[in-house]
C-alpha cells in the first residue's frame, strides 16, 4: 500500500476460534556470515536509475518455530552512505503492501528528495519481503479469467453482488490451497516478516537498525519494534494502520478515508470546472460521482468500465493530488457516454505474486468471519454510512474461505520500550484515515509521538511535500530529536 502504487488493501475481522501458542520473538541469533554484494537484477536497476543499488541474499527460516529447517532467501538492496564519519547505521525500508517490492525504495525516496543528511547517516536497506519477487517467491496461480483483480473487493451495488463476489472469493481461496503443494503460504505473516527484519540486521553485522515504513509498512514496523525493542533504533511510521495487522475493521475504514479525502479532489475539480466540466461546486462534483457510478452499474461503458471499476479508480487516484488531473480526465470521458473517447484505464492486470502475498499475510495474521451473512449485513450498513465506497470495503474477501487458521496471535503493540517511534499522518488519507494513527498512537503510549499533517493523500515523509513534517522526521532520523509531545503541522 504505497503512494506510488495505485493499489489497495484487503483485511480480516477480529479473533475467531482458537489460536496456537505464540512463537518466541527471537530465535537464537546465528553468527553473521560475510555477505557478497553485487549488481541488483536488471529490472531493479531500471527502476532505480539514475541511482544504482547493490544487492545481496540473506537466508531466513521458513518456519521460525524450526529455525534449523527449510531456509528461504530474501534479496536485499543497499545504497550505502558515502560519509563514514557521519554514518550512524542502517535504515531498513518498507514501502507498504504486503506484497510490494521494496528493492528500489531507497532510490525512489532519494529521487523524490530524501535529504542528504539522511543518506549520509545511513546505509539505506530495501528488500523484497518473504514470498515477494526476487526473494523466494510464492504464488496462488490465480488465472485472469477468475476475475480477481484487486485486493479491495469490488463495490457491491446490491445484495446479489455480495453473493456473486462470495463465489469468486471462495474460488480464489480454493485455488491458493490447491496450488500450495509445499504448504509454505501459512508462513507468510507480519510477525515472520518482522523476524526477518531482525535477521537482516544481524546478517549486516549491526547491533541495531532504524526503520521507515509507510502504509502496511507501518504495521510491519509496529510489529518489528514491539518484538525487538532491544535491537531497533529510530523508527518512523508513515500513513498508519491501526495495529500490527490489517483486519476487517481496518478495511472498512478505507471507505471512511475516501469520504474524508474526496472533498479535496472535489474542491480541486470545481475550481477547474471550465477545463473539465465536473461541476461548478464541490457538491456538484460529488453528485456527478454518484451519477456516473450508478449509470455504469446499470450499463457498463463500451470499454468494459463498470461502476465498481470507476469507484475503485477514483479511490486509487485519491492517493495524491498529483493524480487529480488524470482522474479528472477519466471522469470527463465518462460524463458523456456518447462522446468519442480514449478508454478509461481499468485496474492493472493482476500480478499473481503480489495478490498472493497480500492475501496470505492478511488471512494468516488474524481470523476472518466465515459466514456470508456477516458480509451482507456489513455491505448494507456501509453503503449507507460511507456511500462513496463502503459497499466495496465491507464486501467479502477470500479470507472468509482461507484454508489455514492463524498459527499465532497477531503481534501485540508493546508500550513498555524506549520512546523511539515517530508517527506521521495526513489528516485526509483515502486508505489509512487519521483515526488509524490515533488508535495506534494510543497503543504505543509513551513510546510514540504523532505528527498530524493538515494535508491530503497517502504518504507524508518526502512524498507529501509538507515542510514541517519533513523537518521533524529528518531531525529525528539524523539527530534523534523526538518531539516532546504530539504535534500538528499546517498545510
Short note summarizing the structure:
The protein is of the alpha/beta class and 491 residues long.
SSE arrangement:
Blueprint: E1 38-39, H1 42-48, E2 54-61, E3 71-79, E4 89-94, H2 105-111, H3 116-121, E5 122-127, H4 159-179, H5 190-203, E6 209-215, H6 216-227, E7 232-240, H7 248-270, H8 273-276, H9 282-298, H10 307-317, H11 324-335, H12 352-365, H13 372-385, H14 390-393, E8 421-428, H15 434-444, E9 448-456, H16 467-479, E10 487-489
Parallel strand pairs: 4-5, 4-6, 6-7, 7-8, 8-9, 9-10
Antiparallel strand pairs: 1-2, 2-3, 3-5
What would you say this structure looks like, in words?
Helices cover 39% and strands 14% of the residues. It has 491 residues and is α/β, with parallel strands linked by helices. The protein has a ten-stranded mixed β-sheet, sandwiched between helices. Helix 16 links the parallel strand 9 (448-456) and strand 10 (487-489). Helix 4 (159-179) packs across helix 13 and helix 5 crosses helix 6 (216-227).
Amino acid at each position: 500500500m504505497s503512494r506510488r502504487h495505485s493499489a489497495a488493501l484487503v483485511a480480516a475481522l477480529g479473533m475467531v476460534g482458537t489460536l496456537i501458542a505464540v512463537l518466541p520473538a527471537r530465535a537464537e541469533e546465528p553468527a553473521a556470515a560475510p555477505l557478497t554484494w553485487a549488481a541488483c537484477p536488471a529490472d531493479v536497476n531500471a527502476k532505480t536509475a539514475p541511482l544504482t543499488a547493490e544487492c545481496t541474499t540473506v537466508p531466513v527460516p521458513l518456519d521460525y518455530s524450526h529455525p534449523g529447517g527449510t531456509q528461504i532467501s530474501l534479496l536485499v538492496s543497499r545504497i550505502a552512505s558515502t560519509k563514514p564519519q557521519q554514518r550512524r547505521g542502517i535504515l531498513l525500508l518498507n514501502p507498504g503492501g504486503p506484497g510490494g517490492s521494496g528493492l528500489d525504495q531507497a532510490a525512489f525516496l532519494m529521487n523524490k528528495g530524501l535529504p542528504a543528511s539522511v543518506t549520509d547517516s545511513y546505509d539505506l536497506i530495501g528488500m523484497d519481503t518473504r514470498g515477494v519477487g526476487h526473494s523466494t517467491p510464492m504464488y496462488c496461480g490465480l488465472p485472469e479469467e477468475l476475475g480477481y483483480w484487486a485486493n479491495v473487493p469490488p463495490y457491491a451495488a446490491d445484495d446479489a453482488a455480495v453473493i456473486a463476489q462470495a463465489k469468486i472469493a471462495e474460488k480464489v481461496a480454493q485455488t491458493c490451497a490447491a496450488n500450495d503443494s509445499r504448504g509454505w503460504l501459512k508462513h507468510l505473516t507480519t510477525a515472520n516478516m518482522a523476524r526477518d527484519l531482525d535477521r537482516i540486521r544481524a546478517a549486516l553485522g549491526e547491533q541495531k537498525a532504524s526503520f521507515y515504513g509507510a502504509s502496511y509498512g507501518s504495521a510491519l514496523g509496529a510489529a518489528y519494534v514491539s518484538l525487538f525493542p532491544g535491537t531497533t533504533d529510530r523508527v518512523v511510521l508513515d500513513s498508519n494502520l491501526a495495529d500490527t495487522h490489517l483486519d476487517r475493521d481496518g478495511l472498512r475504514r478505507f471507505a471512511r478515508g475516501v469520504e474524508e479525502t474526496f472533498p479535496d479532489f472535489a474542491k480541486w475539480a470545481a475550481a477547474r470546472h471550465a477545463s473539465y466540466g465536473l461541476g461548478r461546486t464541490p457538491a456538484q462534483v460529488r453528485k456527478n460521482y454518484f451519477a456516473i457510478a450508478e449509470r455504469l452499474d446499470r450499463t457498463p461503458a463500451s470499454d468494459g468500465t463498470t461502476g465498481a471499476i470507476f469507484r475503485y479508480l477514483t479511490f486509487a487516484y485519491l492517493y495524491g493530488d498529483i493524480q487529480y488531473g488524470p482522474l479528472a480526465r477519466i471522469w470527463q470521458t465518462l460524463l458523456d457516454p456518447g462522446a468519442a473517447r480514449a478508454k478509461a484505464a481499468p485496474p492493472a492486470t493482476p500480478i499473481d505474486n503480489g495478490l498472493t502475498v497480500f492475501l496470505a499475510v492478511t488471512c494468516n495474521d488474524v481470523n476472518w468471519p466465515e459466514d456470508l451473512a456477516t458480509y451482507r449485513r456489513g455491505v448494507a450498513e456501509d453503503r449507507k454510512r460511507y456511500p462513496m465506497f463502503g459497499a466495496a470495503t465491507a464486501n467479502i474477501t477470500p479470507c472468509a474461505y482461507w484454508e489455514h487458521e492463524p498459527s499465532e496471535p497477531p503481534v501485540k503493540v508493546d508500550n513498555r520500550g524506549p520512546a523511539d517511534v515517530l508517527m506521521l499522518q495526513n489528516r485526509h488519507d483515502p486508505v489509512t484515515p487519521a483515526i488509524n494513527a490515533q488508535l495506534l498512537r494510543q497503543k504505543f503510549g509513551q513510546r510514540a509521538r504523532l505528527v498530524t499533517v493538515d494535508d491530503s493523500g497517502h504518504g507524508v515523509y518526502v512524498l507529501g511535500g509538507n515542510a514541517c513534517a519533513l523537518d521533524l522526521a529528518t531531525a529525528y532520523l539524523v539527530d534523534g530529536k523526538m518531539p516532546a509531545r504530539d504535534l500538528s503541522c499546517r498545510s
